[in-house]
Amino acid sequence: MSDLLAEAEREIRQKPREQIEEETAFKWAARAVAAYRVFRSGHMRDQWLRDAEHYQDEACEHAALADHSGEVLRAVREWMRRYIPPGAL
Question: What's the number of domains the chain is made of?
């Protein structure tokens, strides 16, 4: 766990907050897509769908914090739509 703390401190010292939020948004978006794919493959159906929804919410939250223009939020939503059909979550 101390490695995680050291990595987090390095990241905070080296990157602006907006970049951290954007990167975090896309990580959550990737988790949403992965969970949705697992759901679609038939493994633990209900839980993975709920997780995909939660991860999508996290992605959008971090994307909204990344910039004031909404550009990152639009990009994250567009990226997830490539893999998750509209209305699926």
Answer: 1
